[in-house]
Amino acid sequence: MTAAYAVREAAEPADRDACFAVRREVFVEEQGVPRELEYDAYDATAVHVLAVRADGLPLGTGRLLHGADAVGKTGGDASVGSLGRLAVAKAARGLGVGAALVLAVEDVARERGLTAVDLHAQTHALGFYERLGYTAYGPEFPDAGMPHRAMRKAL
After folding, report:
1. Which of 61, 27, 63, 71 is nearest to 43 (CA)?
2. Side-chain half-sphere of 77: how many Cα atoms within 13 Å?
3. What CATH number corresponds to the domain at position 32?
4. Distance separating alpha carbons of residues 121 and 119, to the nearest angstrom
5. How many structural domains are present in the chain?
6. Where are the alpha helices (DSSP H) in the chain?
7. pLDDT tens digits, residue range 12-43?
8. pTM higher than 0.85 for the full model?
9. Residue range of the domain that includes 33
10. Pairing outcome for strands 146-154 and 135-143
11. Whole-angstrom Cα distance, residue 120 to residue 106?
């Protein structure tokens, strides 16, 4: 947390709506991801985190899949969580919001007893995640029409 914004678990319906609004702005409008791919059944059971400015303006979001929801994304290992849907509003980029969201998701994963966090990074973001301790593995693959790599960080 900094003086400019706070990161919290999105427990209230209004917080989740704010998460979805940031995702719509970044993924659907900016990157052209089809709406039907951006929102999925995992949204109902995922832990969402939200970064908000002091005046309540949503700046960014991310989600953690865990347990059975994460198994298909983590190579079948229920002790590994899956970080996804990390999005930072254009106006908030460069302020450390993305890193704060990743750290918040890692904290949630630790609280749930997970041993690692996996993610599927757009290839242009590999350096960002590497600076946060993630290591890429496996080949590049397409997701929503964009190149991605799997990454993992032990907790």
Report:
1. 63
2. 14
3. 3.40.630.30
4. 6
5. 1
6. 13-23, 35-38, 68-71, 97-111, 126-131
7. 999 999 999 999 999 999 999 999 999 999 99
8. yes
9. 5-154
10. antiparallel
11. 15
